[in-house]
Amino acid sequence: MPGKVIRGHEKWEDKCGNCHDRSGAHTQTSLCLDCHKDIATDVRTRHGFHGRMSNAGEGECRACHTEHKGREADIVQLGRAQFDHKLTEFALEGAHVALACESCHKKGEAWRKAPVTCIGCHKNDDVHLGQFTQSCSECHSSMSWSGGRFDHDKTDFKLTGAHQTITCNACHIAGHFKATPKSCNACHETDDEHRGSRGVDCGRCHTTADWKTAKYDHLKETGFGLVGSHAKLDCLTCHRSGNYKEKIPKDCNGCHRADDAHAGRFGGKCEDCHDNDRWKPVDYDHLGRHKFALLGAHAKISCYACHSALIAKQKLGKDCVDCHRSEDPHAGKVKGGCEACHGQDSWRAGISFDHDLSAFPLLGLHRAVSCTQCHTTLAYGAAPITCVDCHSREDVHKGGLGKKCESCHSANGWPLWNFNHAKETGFALIGGHANLKCADCHREAPGSVKTSSLCISCHRKDDRHLGAYGSQCERCHTTYSWKGARVQ
């Protein structure tokens, strides 16, 4: 022999035919694989280091492994520094890169026998105690055990809302993952403030975000929608007994009878005036409901100022006098209603009356006088409407010209008068008559209008003919002058 074989081959040392075939050296590889059946399987199935080599199934074993170098010889001749672990069934990644070979390959055992599964090396590190599958890589990476990832959506219980942020042990007590409850009540029975009265299906009302974020459709389930201030109330504010199956009233008065400042006088339909946000301010369509708009001072007074009775269906009049009869200084003598003169802001301020629509329109100086100069009493309808009724003392005609002062005089002043003497009397004031005063002709008692139209009736003393030519002076003379008489 060229030398002794290694200790592993020692018992076959005297049987050369086990490794050598005299028919040719190229058959030696097949003899090696006949003995090393696990290597032969790797080569045939293309697994393991020998099955992944570029010349697997074609190269000769002796190209790498030589014998007859002594009992302690290293015929494997593995170069650790140059060995590409990717050619094996286990590529070194993450924390495995920094490990020594002996950490996985036990001394005295073949290198190929090192485990390739996580659990093969880390069984003692498994905090799950084998409850999960053997594939640790489904949750953990090769960098570190911490920071494990697990797709809970692949289970029968998807993590949503607040469940996404809690630790595994919050539900899987003491690391036990099997038989973990899936119902809300199984974990949150102690949190159930309903004490089981609403059943165990918490998901009907609550979400996984938090307990307070409820999705209970109160309107659909009970016929009473939670709007306004009701939406902010705690359930027990209305369901005081905690028994949600117990019937409670759905009308305002059923819960707020003690809050009714009207003491029931307006009935139980609070919603006619109030809304769900607050008792005040009241939004009540007084015009639409009662055909009486609350304007001016009416908008500021209390409801009870008018609705004084203790009943809800009290009928009130809509005329001013129905409420303000005792405040009427006219004692009901003025026709047309209070609103003809007064506004709704104040009795005294903003008084307006269109005198032009009355039987006596205010013209000229009448617009400047105060009401009391003509209306001597608060019964304004009894005021006189003729001139002489107020101005009889100022009538210089002493009634002789009748009562229709307006026939001659203007409302702008007594001196501003206009009388058509020719039209009204048939005697035109022309010539010397145009500048005369009324009394120059009307010399009888004051107010006398019956004066002769004959010249002689006024000019008898001026007649130089002493009546010889009769009384028709106008036959020769004109009204402009006595002189220059014309003889016909």
Describe the structure.
The protein has 14 helices and 2 strands, in the order αααααααααααββααα. It is mainly α and 488 residues long. Helices cover 15% and strands 1% of the residues. The protein has helices spanning 28-35, 37-45, 48-52, 118-122, 184-188, 218-222, 235-238, 252-256, 286-290, 320-324, 387-391, 421-425, 438-441, 455-459; strands at residues 409-410, 413-417. The model has no long low-confidence stretch (mean pLDDT 84). Strand 1 and strand 2 (413-417) form a beta hairpin. The chain has a two-stranded antiparallel sheet.
Descriptive keywords:
488 residues; 14 helices
Outline:
By secondary structure, the chain is mainly α. The chain has 14 helices and two strands, in the order αααααααααααββααα. A two-stranded antiparallel ribbon has the order 1-2.
Which strand order does the major sheet show?
1-2
- What count of helical segments does DSSP give? 14
Alpha carbon gap, first and last residue: 203 Å
Biggest sheet, in brief?
A: 2 strands, antiparallel
Q: Measured on Cα atoms, how large is the radius of gyration? A: 65 Å
- Return the structural class: mainly alpha
Strand and helix order: HHHHHHHHHHHEEHHH
**Averaged pLDDT, please?**
84
Number of strands: 2
General form: rod-shaped
Helix content: 10-25%
Strand content: under 5%
Contiguous runs where pLDDT drops below 50 for at least 5 residues:
none
Topology:
Layout: H1 28-35, H2 37-45, H3 48-52, H4 118-122, H5 184-188, H6 218-222, H7 235-238, H8 252-256, H9 286-290, H10 320-324, H11 387-391, E1 409-410, E2 413-417, H12 421-425, H13 438-441, H14 455-459
Antiparallel strand pairs: 1-2
